[in-house]
Design goal:
436 residues; alpha+beta; membrane; 9 helices; 2 domains; transmembrane; disordered N terminus; Ig-like domain-containing protein; transmembrane helix; seven-stranded antiparallel sheet; 13 strands
Length: 436
């Protein structure tokens, strides 16, 4: 995976991210990742000893005459220790509006406005608690795969992103921020690719964090630079976009990005609890490295699907680099086929505990509204929830919660003829085959 800053800047300026890979309403190929699940809440109780285990009170002793007239001894002073407890750290709660010191942001890029995540874009809101929730996925984005399931997989890894926009004629008209925890290995891989690539120029090095790298790209119309920093295992990316002819000098670029990076690192660190990935429990999906179960399940519906396994890479090249790594870190994977009639199957383990509550579509965000049919799972072992959706006449897909994961079966582009009945049969077959 190689992030392409040229495409990223152009896509961000248009407020729509480009998608490459299997899509509904786009090019058909491979992306990865899915999610879903019914919400589960558990109330914690406090265990108390049964009433019959409490000791009965002893009878009061009867005082003698001598005892009644005796002088009571002076009690010795005792030291009473008051137990103390260390308060639990507060949950991570740092919205986009508070990621940077506003003075630092205004000094480098004045006049920018915080932007909501755009429909069809790849991005995740910062978590609002100790773990990711459905609120991390912006309603305007929840249109269809691949944007929806890619965002859910990235959120599962603790990834989030923010962006600010201004006028195209400003020296800096756009700022993007991305944060990915537990990303030391991914950071080093991205750094090696960036340093060795002839596609980028680089700013002066910086001593921020534990490690860092920069990269810049320029075209006749656009210009952009980013600073990537690894600090305590968290990967921070700060990217600035300019219009050609209006960009700052390289030294100003480097100083401005460094100031923003220091600001966000300080604010995230001050939270005490960093953003965290969802911990998916062991399941039938743990350690799965091939698509045999899906080939077996769907061969009754599609002739020789011949599925190929792909671990969580999202296949895109127009986004902040941490996004693709985030989808992979989630444990998400996809199975795709060279057969043009075969659907793509995508799995995000553990997402069933939170992502099923993400609204599936925002009708005012797309020209083709999404229709949703809830499917009955009664009497189907292992299939906890299911639904079938179509976006106009562009394409259809089915989601299901199977052993804690949300499994998405995406029909080939333009294929709206499968129908809810066949989709449910495919999901039932997957639930049965993966149980073996």
């Amino acid at each position: 995976m190689k992030a392409n800053i040229h495409q990223a800047i152009a896509a961000d300026q248009a407020a729509v991210r480009r998608r490459r890979g299997w899509t509904i309403g786009g090019t058909l190929g491979l992306l990865v990742v899915l999610a879903g699940g019914t919400s589960v809440a558990m109330a914690a109780g406090v265990l108390k000893a049964p009433q019959w285990l409490a000791a009965a009170p002893a009878p009061a002793p009867t005082a003698t005459h001598e005892q009644e007239n005796a002088t009571a001894p002076t009690p010795s002073p005792t030291l009473t220790l008051t137990p103390t407890s260390t308060p639990a750290p507060a949950a991570f709660d740092l919205p986009c509006s508070e990621q940077f010191d506003p003075t630092v942001l205004a000094s480098f890029a004045p006049g920018l406005t915080l932007q909501p995540l755009a429909p069809l874009s790849y991005g995740v809101n910062p978590p609002t608690g100790s773990s990711v929730t459905a609120a991390s996925i912006a309603p305007g984005e929840n249109v269809a795969p691949p944007a929806l399931i890619s965002n859910i997989a990235a959120a599962e890894s603790g990834y989030y992103s923010c962006r600010w926009h201004g006028e195209a004629t400003q020296s800096i008209w756009g700022i993007q921020l991305a944060v990915l925890p537990d990303a030391a290995s991914a950071f080093q891989e991205a750094k090696a690719q960036s340093v060795s690539s002839a596609d980028y120029t680089h700013l002066a090095s910086t001593s921020i964090g534990d490690d860092s790298f920069t990269r810049c790209a320029h075209t006749d119309a656009l210009s952009g630079c980013e600073l990537d920093v690894l600090s305590d295992g968290i990967w921070f990316t700060v990217r600035a976009s300019s219009t050609a002819g209006h960009e700052p000098e390289p030294a100003a670029y480097a100083d401005g990005l460094a100031a923003l990076a220091r600001s966000v690192i300080a604010r995230v660190t001050a939270q005490g609890t960093p953003p965290q990935a969802v911990s998916a429990p062991a399941s039938r999906w743990t350690g799965m490295t091939d698509c045999a179960a899906f080939t077996r399940a769907l061969s009754a519906h599609i002739a020789t699907p011949a599925y190929t396994f792909d671990a969580g890479t999202d296949g895109t090249d127009a986004y902040l680099p941490g996004f693709g790594y985030a989808t992979k870190q989630s444990g998400a994977f996809s199975c795709y086929s060279g057969n043009a009639d075969a659907p793509t199957v995508v799995v995000v383990p553990g997402a069933g505990s939170w992502a099923w509550d993400v609204p599936l579509a925002s009708e005012d965000a797309v020209s083709a509204p999404v229709t949703i049919t809830q499917l009955s799972t009664a009497g189907v072992p292992g299939l906890d929830a299911a639904r079938y959706a179509c976006m106009g006449n562009v394409g259809c897909w089915a989601d299901a919660v199977i052993d804690g994961a949300m499994v998405t079966v995406i029909q080939p582009m333009g294929n709206s003829s499968v129908g809810a009945t066949t989709a449910l049969a495919e999901l039932e077959a997957i639930a049965e085959s993966t149980r073996r």
